[in-house]
Every structure is written in structure tokens, then in C-alpha cells.
Design brief:
mainly alpha; two-stranded antiparallel sheet
Length: about 120
């Protein structure tokens, strides 16, 4: 789930905890791009990876033509590219907030790290 079931806004992670020592970080962390895929998109990506990136094999597994599968994959590629562009724009905004003193460098680095790498 990547959207609030009530208002449809994008969800964020609000904390991390170490199961070994109990240390906790409470903050707002954006979800990594792949975690923002809807369940159907995530399943398509997983199937594609498990098919070794073979579009023909994936099409056969899913019972569709190769051109249809290629179109579905292109839609997924376009979606991830748009998310990446949006994340890059958010990073530019955060860098501006750091320069203006509205966001601490530490907080900005955590958010940027989550956007770029899916971790903080």
C-alpha cells in the first residue's frame, strides 16, 4: 500500500527501529520509488525479473502477445522515470531549503538519502 485508504495521499515511513538494540529514529521518510508501485506494477516487475528480463517468456507466462507485454513494460518504465524526476525535483527543493536555513543539513540528508537509495 502506498496511498492512504482514506484521503489517497502518498504514505511516508515515520520511523525506523533496530530489532537488536531497540534504537529508534522517528522522522518522516519518503517511501522508495519501487515501494510506491501499485500491487499490479510490482507484480509485473517481479515477474519480469524472475523471467530473467526475457519479454517473450514473460508474455507467454502472462498469456499476452510480446508487443502487448512490451507496451506494459514501457508504461512501467515511464512511471518509474516520472517518479525519479519528481524525486529529483524534491531533492532540489530540499537543497534550497537547506541553503535558506529552513531545513537542517542532517534532516535534508536523511530525506535525500531515502529518495535516492530507499534508506536513510
Amino acid at each position: 500500500m502506498h496511498q492512504c485508504s482514506f484521503c489517497k495521499s502518498e504514505l511516508e515511513t515515520t520511523g525506523y527501529a533496530c530489532s537488536a538494540c531497540g534504537v529508534r529514529w522517528d522522522a518522516r521518510f519518503p517511501l522508495p520509488r519501487l515501494a510506491r508501485l501499485d500491487p499490479g506494477e510490482a507484480a509485473l516487475l517481479e515477474d519480469f525479473l524472475l523471467a530473467g528480463g526475457n519479454v517473450s517468456e514473460l508474455a507467454q507466462q502472462r498469456g499476452v502477445s510480446r508487443p502487448t507485454m512490451r507496451n506494459r513494460l514501457q508504461e512501467l518504465i515511464d512511471r518509474v522515470a516520472a517518479m525519479r524526476e519528481g524525486d529529483n525535483q524534491r531533492i532540489e527543493t530540499i537543497l534550497g531549503e537547506i541553503r535558506e536555513g529552513r531545513t537542517s543539513p542532517e534532516q535534508g540528508a536523511r530525506i535525500i538519502g531515502a529518495l535516492q537509495h530507499g534508506s536513510s
